[in-house]
Amino acid sequence: ATPKALMVGTGRGAQLGILIKGPELLESTRRVDTVVLDKTGTVTTGQMRLRDVVPAEGESADDVLLLAAAVEDASEHPVARAVATGARERLVATPGAEHPLPAMADFANSEGLGVRGVVTAEGVPHDVVVGRASFVEGSGTAVPDELATAMRRAEESGGTAVVVAWDGAARGVLVVADAVKPTSAEAITRLRGLGLHPVLLTGDNAATARAVGAEVGVAPDDVIAEVLPADKVDVVKRLQAEGRVVAMVGDGVNDAAALAQADLGLAMGTGTDVAIEASDLTLVRGDLRVAADAIRLSRRTLATIK
Ligand code: ADP
Ligand code: MG
Fold first, then answer.
1. Is 145 among the catalytic positions?
2. Which ligand number lies closest to the CA of residue 256?
3. Which SS3 state, helix, strand or coil, does residue 132 take?
4. Is residue 238 part of a domain?
5. Which residues of the chain, if any, have pLDDT below 50?
6. Are residues 68 and 165 in the same domain?
7. Which of 69, 117, 163, 172 is in Cβ range 3.0-4.6 Å of 107 for a Cys bridge?
């Protein structure tokens, strides 16, 4: 490869809004045949909002939201941000509620699963757990059918539902959702146009992931869901072991290892520093269509070199 032609590639890349770490990496993009796309923050905006509070029978929706938010306030996870913000928006207007979130102690975060903490409300401490149904069940708390049904319904429409439990009983379900980016479906069409095979990868549940896949044109068979943060890298390795040359697009801390493992790592410029550092390319504006541009550009640049 002549450095000059590659420099042209990088200059054009900058115009398109692609930051390229080193010209040598462009070599590896030529044989890419599979593009693994993180869901939250990559295909979707990542700006989750609280959509619904479903209390279990006999529970108050406000209590469910309040106690959950008291714990989630200590987490940076997009689900947690949506819950804490939603609680402030909905409950801050309550007369006399100067400090809408009760005190919380003994916070513990289980990456990709959920959170727990002791929340003191009206002088009574409660052991609160918020997270995936499997996480709450793992703590010894059953999720009743009425809540499981509410979760399934929310997930089938692309939402993410988490269980709120305290003192050993499931008290309700919170539904959060973010929107698919308006550019994502077109981006996936463009990737297919380049002969690439898109795969959607997420820690979120399968029903939510499939609903998002359907919205952007990724078939259910190409949706890999409920993958723990530490296991995303194994999915990339498995695809590589099958002989695929993998580009990975992601934005989160939980994508960093997979981005580094991929033959080509592309980070959303709107994402975390950890993801950007682990990647070969950064899509400055966080527009997924530019991932297709980046791969096309690098192929064309290599063609001019040969
Ligand atoms: P993604 O791969 O989509 O970025 P994560 O692996 O970070 O998702 O999280 C997977 C799932 O774990 C979430 O969809 C949610 O159900 C649960 N979860 C993780 N963190 C939290 C939290 N702070 N509060 C509630 N649920 C959580
Ligand atoms: Mg993400």
1. no
2. 2
3. coil
4. yes
5. 1-8, 306
6. yes
7. 117
pTM here is 0.81
- Quote ipTM for the complex: 0.91
Amino acid at 163: V
pLDDT (0 to 100) of residue 25? 59
Same domain, 287 and 200: yes
The predicted-structure confidence for 22-80, as pLDDT tens digits, reads as follows 666 566 678 899 999 999 999 999 899 999 999 999 999 999 999 999 999 999 999 99
Predicted pLDDT of residue 18:
85
Report the alpha-carbon distance of residue 217 to residue 62 in Å, rounded: 37
- Residue having the nearest C-alpha atom to atom 8 of ligand 1: 203
Write out the residue range of the structural domain in which residue 135 sits. 49-177
Number of domains in the chain: 2
- 265: tokens are 């790592």
- Nearest ligand atom owner, CA of 114: 1
Structural contact between residues 190 and 292, judged by C-beta atoms closer than 8 angstroms: yes
Going from the Cα of 105 to the center of ligand 1, the distance in angstroms, rounded, reads: 21
SS3 state at 200: strand
